[in-house]
Each structure stands twice: as C-alpha cells, then as structure tokens.
Amino acid sequence: MRVIQEMHQFEDGLRPAQPSVAHDWDGENWVLDAAKAVLLEQQETERLCARVDAIADSARAALVGDPLKAAEYAQAASEAQAFKEAGYPKKAVPLAVSAWVVKGRTAKAAADQILDKAAELNSKLLALRTLRLQAKERIRAQASKGKQEAAKDACEAAIEAIGKVVSG
Q1: Which helix (H) or strand (E) segment is 71 a member of?
Q2: DSSP letter, residue 88
Q3: Where are the domains of the chain?
Q4: CA-CA distance, 58 to 96, in Å (whole number)?
Q5: Exposure on the CB side of residue 71, measured as CA atoms within 13 A
C-alpha cells in the first residue's frame, strides 16, 4: 500500500497541508493548538447565533415594515381594544376604527378586524422570538458538546422555520 500525501510550499520548504487553522507547525509536524481550537469553535458558535439574530431581525422588519407604520397600527389596535371593551358604542367610534369603516363594514367589524390583524402580527413576532432564542440555545448546547455540525444544522433549521413564519 502506498500513501500519497499532498505537499504544500511554505516559505521554509515543503510540508503537508495544514489540517486546520487551529494547527501550528512545530518544525516537523502540524500540532493542534487546543486553546486556538476552543477559541475558533467559540467564534463559530457566536457567528451561527449572530446569523440567526440577523435573519430574525430581517423577518421582523418584513412583518412590521416601517416603524412609524407599526406605531400607527399599534395605536389603532389600542383604540379598537378600548372600543371593544366599551361595548362598541356607536356614538363613540375612535378615529382609528372609523378609518376602517368602508365598503359596508361596521365599526364593530372594523375594530374586530384591526384586533385580529394585531393578534396575528403579535403571534408571528412571538413565534420569531421563540424560534430565535431556542435556536441559539440549541446551537450553544451542541457546540458545548463539540458537535459543530449539529450546531450548524440547528442554525439552518431555525432559518428555515423563521422563513416559514414570514411566508405563512
């Protein structure tokens, strides 16, 4: 049996390929620097967590849109909730609710629709938060066991789930 090993040119001559960036050349062999390996794994773990955060931030922005519009919708939901709690008084329809009274929609129907949309948005935002936090916990748990591939898989699974929240 013949073993052919690829050699690479370095400033001090030929040597086998560096197995990983966590390995250092000791003059004769590549030696794993355990401290460097731990640091690189920590950096990769934080990179994966930051990726989940960034995807979740983009998803929130896609759901909420313009921050001023989001504040406007939150105000409309607050007024619709107060209107509902007051028993939908016909002589005291809030402006935010009356703006939705179009095409034969009653003030009650408008308020209920505003509240339904607000509840749907809040549900999606909570789902994003839950997915983001659980993913980061899974990533860190897998990485702490030395299972970097499983940590990457947890990251990818979270990104896919976040996409489904936004699209569905």
Answers
A1: helix 67-85
A2: -
A3: 1-32, 34-167
A4: 28
A5: 3
**0.85 exceeded by the pTM?**
no
For 25, the token pair is: 């050349």
Q: Which whole-number Å values give the CA distances from 105 to 75, 108, 112, 121, in the listed order?
A: 20, 8, 11, 22
State the pLDDT confidence band at 21, using cuts at 50, 70 and 90: confident
- Say how far apart CA 6 and CA 54 lie, in whole Å: 39
d(CA 53, CA 65): 17
Q: Which residues contact 80 (CB under 8 A, 6 or more apart)?
A: 94, 96, 97, 110, 111, 112, 114, 115, 118
Dig out the tokens for 129 from the structure. Answer: 């938060």
Contact 155, 51 (CB under 8 A): yes
